[in-house]
Every structure is written in C-alpha cells, then in structure tokens.
Design brief:
This protein has 205 residues and is α+β, with helices and mostly antiparallel strands. It has helices at residues 3-25, 58-70, 80-85, 157-166, 197-201; strands at residues 77-78, 89-90, 97-110, 116-131, 135-136, 169-172, 178-180, 185-188. The protein folds into two domains: 3-150, no CATH class; 152-205, no CATH class. The strands form three sheets. It has a three-stranded antiparallel beta sheet. It has a three-stranded mixed beta sheet with strand order 6-8-7, with no helix packed on it. Strands 2-5 form a two-stranded antiparallel ribbon. It holds the Pfam family ArdcN.
C-alpha cells in the first residue's frame, strides 16, 4: 500500500472516530436510557440506499448520527449523481454526509522464487451521500413516511416467568420507568419501545 493510500485510510478513520467522540461528548450515549418513545410506533428504521437496500456496519451509525444532528426524517440517502439519475437535484448550499465502502481486490505478484502468487489487498473508499430531505424533485415515494421495519424485540421467557412469580403489578405506558409506592405498582414504558429484551429486564438500566 502506498503512503498516499495509507494516509487516506487514516484520515477516514480519524473522521469517523471524531464524529463518534463528538456525539459522546454531547451526551448521546446508548446506556443513558434504553428505550425510545418514538419506538412505540415501530422499530427504528435503518438508513437506506436509494434502491431500498439498508446500509451496514459503521455507515449505519454515521447516518443515524447525521440524521439526528440535522433533524432529517427520511431514512433514504443517495449520491449527487444518483439524485440526478432519479430526476432530482440537491438543493443549493446543502452539505452531504460521509459514508465508506470497504472491500478488497486481488493482485498477482511474483515472489522471491519467481512464482506468481495472488495477494488480497484491502481498501477503503469514502464518498458523500445526501438525505432525501435535502433533495427536490425526486419521485413521490422518496418523500413518503417509511413503514416501520419489521424487527420485533423477542421476549426472554425465563425473565417473564420470574417477574410473574414475584406477584408485582407491572403496568405499561408512557416514557418513564419507576415504582409507585402509593399504588404499589411498577410502571414501565411499552416493551416494544426498548432497544432489546435485556434492556427491559436489567434493573441497572
């Protein structure tokens, strides 16, 4: 790998790290509250490409962070070129978000014995995408509210049995978790609003 390629990779990693650290410094920490009131209408929607395929890995975190910080509603992201191909145009003055593409290619080289060997070389490429909220003129379906993704949180059977055996009265609703001594009840947000079953069951959350 050339020094230029290595520097590009380091710069991309540094940019991603800086963004995540900045979110943490602003108090965006996943362990502060394990539920989200918005989840009661459906599970969180993953960022999607223009063709409906979901982003994966670090790109999911990057685009979630970008959407939250800039107030975007649409989960759909695309490049400047893709927006033009779909008949739209990015509004003047809009800035995009950085996502990365990681893969590898194979290069045939000659080793010290004069024999040809294949070597896999990883590479990382950064490119810029825009939210559909930043683009005018796209087909109507790109501006529709996305249907909640089907991603139900599975319950933990032995935990449910334990809670039932305590005899405690557990009520669900609202966006706060607490014990009401006057009514002798445990109040919990709806189960579906938690990011996962362990977050619902663990008293430390």
């Amino acid at each position: 790998m050339s020094s230029k390629e290595n520097k590009t990779r380091v710069d991309i990693y540094a940019k991603i790290t800086d963004r995540i650290v900045a979110d943490l410094e602003k108090g965006v920490r996943p362990w502060v509250k394990p539920w989200n009131a918005a989840n009661t209408g459906g599970r969180i929607t993953r960022p999607l490409r223009h063709n409906g395929l979901p982003y994966q890995g670090i790109n999911t975190l990057l685009l979630w962070s970008e959407a939250v910080s800039r107030g975007f509603v649409s989960p759909i992201w695309m490049t400047f070129k893709q927006s033009i191909e779909l008949g739209g145009h990015v509004r003047k003055g809009e800035t995009g978000a950085t996502v990365v593409y990681a893969s590898r290619f194979t290069r045939t080289e000659t080793d010290a014995h004069g024999e040809e060997v294949e070597r896999g070389i990883p590479f990382l490429k950064a490119y810029t995408v825009f939210s559909a909220d930043q683009i005018d003129g796209l087909p109507e379906q790109y501006y529709l509210d996305p249907a909640p993704a089907t991603d139900p949180v599975e319950r933990i059977a032995h935990a449910d049995t334990f809670f039932a055996n305590t005899g405690a009265v557990i009520r669900h609703g609202g966006n706060q978790a607490y014990f009401n001594p006057g009514l002798d009840i445990v109040q919990m947000p709806p189960f579906e609003s938690f990011r996962d079953a362990p977050s619902y069951c663990d008293p430390r959350t």
